[in-house]
Amino acid sequence: MSDIQEISYFIGTDDHDAIDPTEHRKSLAERFARIRAITKELAARLSVEDCMLQSMPDTSPVKWHLAHTTWFFEIFVLERSDPHHIPFDPQYRYLFNSYYDAVGPQYPRARRGLLSRPSLTEIGAYRRTVDEQVLCGLLSGRWPRALLDLIELGLHHEQQHQELILTDIKHGFWGNPDFPAYRMLSVPEIKTAPDHQWIEYEGGRAMVGAASAGFSFDNERPRHAVLLPSFELGSRLVTNGEYAEFIADHGYDRPDLWLSEGWAWRSREHWKAPLYWLHEEKSGRGSPERVFTLGGMRAFDANEPVCHISYFEADAYARWRKCRLPTEHEWECAAVKSGSSRAGTFLDSGLLHPGKTMQNSGIAQLFGDAWEWTQSAYLPYPGFCTAESELGEYNGKFMINQMVLRGGSCATPRDHIRSTYRNFFPPHARWQFSGIRLAR
Question: What is the pLDDT of residue 5?
């Protein structure tokens, strides 16, 4: 099996015979240009110095994101399309490789912020050169459908990095004593959040995972049956005000509410509240005076969804409420039953901050606003098969010590998310827009 054929393990595609090849290439070229332009626009608001920031090993400089997403297209599309491909710079294969051991060694992740060279200007030239070559090959009509599928994969990969650009620069700006704004934000005025209600779901046999048609990552496959007991989900995300009650009730001081590893993280890192909450009183308990956002500091709003919390904090809060977090299969079944509506706040809105829901009945905020921690460990689905090519390293090798999140956030592109999408992070991670939905 060739490397290009192995992509079938990674992407579910529509019936090739049912798609007009010319229209498909044209549509894909338009999407390629649009998505690549969005990434450039996200970086355009930043200074050269901003693009060098790396505030911790889990984050990466914006300059590195710009280069790595381009590296992805050069290595996995251009090199496969032409065995005589001349690289833009041979050193980039090493500098901007993230974790693909089959491709070769990588520059240490924790030291990406030291890469002052190549310059941001050179990275811009790299992006333009690779873009031109990809579009030329795409529109030539000579590339096989398998290469077009690789471009589709690369675009979804780029959208993941668009979200990381925002979460990483927010964490970098948080370390600046001036708390700078990435951009001015206009947040809608909603005085109160709807009452929290319980939405009932009947148990039974359910199908989960991606169907055969359309794009999906390999970790969403194969589609399979699960048996669910009846359950209830919270009608909306947990709010800042509700989480502040947990803090005021000494939730961060009660080891009985915490998993052992979570208590160790809370103690070692001195967690007292979600990341980006700024308590100016000495007690640090209850509601903060201000919250840091991509728009800079703003007043605390009790009605917004709480976010930037770890799995450990979400789990402790649920225990305090005598509830639990949903499983990823419960979440997916609820999302399917709610229909295809994506009424939440996404990157496309420009809000760049979790929004407040006005929905007073039914289930709300399943998509967008804040990623929702589930109690499900990130594991392979029954029958999961890792591709034998380098792309087999994309998801499969991380299926340990991670927890699944669902639904997307205010930094996720709307057309990137779906009900079967499985995000994953280690349980201590807090710099992502991650929040809580209760279950019981």
Answer: 42
Q: How far apart are CA 404 and CA 340, in angstroms?
A: 21
d(CA 276, CA 297): 9
Bond prior to 305 in cis (omega within 30° of 0): no
Cα–Cα dist 223/89, whole Å: 41
CATH 3.90.1580.10 is right for the domain spanning 198-435: yes
Rg of the chain over CA atoms, in angstroms?
Answer: 22
Mark residue 203 as left, alpha or beta (left: phi above 0; alpha: psi -120 to 50; beta: remaining). beta
The third-level CATH classification (topology) of the domain covering 5-174 is Four Helix Bundle (Hemerythrin (Met), subunit A) (1.20.120)
Distances (CA, A) of 275 to 32, 60, 109, 131, 405: 34, 18, 23, 37, 18
- Is 85's pLDDT higher than 50? yes
pLDDT computed for residue 340 by the predictor:
58
In Å, what is the CA distance from 45 to each residue of 20, 51, 183, 221?
Answer: 39, 10, 8, 38
What six digits make up the tokens of 192?
């109160």
* Mean pLDDT, rounded, for 138-145: 93
First to last CA, the chain: 46
**Average pLDDT of 225-247?**
97
**How far is CA 236 from its chain centroid?**
20
* pLDDT tens digit sequence for 332-389: 999 999 875 778 899 999 999 999 888 878 999 999 999 999 999 999 999 999 887 8
Give the domain ranges of the chain. Answer: 5-174, 198-435
Give the pLDDT mean for 26-51: 98
| CA nearest neighbour of 307 among 171, 431, 440, 180 | 431
Say if strands 434-435 and 371-377 run parallel, antiparallel, or are unpaired: parallel
Task: Enter the pTM of the model.
Answer: 0.94
Task: Write out the two tokens for 76.
Answer: 């996995």
| Fold matches, 5-174 and 198-435 | no
On the question of pLDDT at 432 being above 60, the answer is yes
Name which of 50-54, 72-76, 177-181, 189-193 the model is least confident about.
189-193
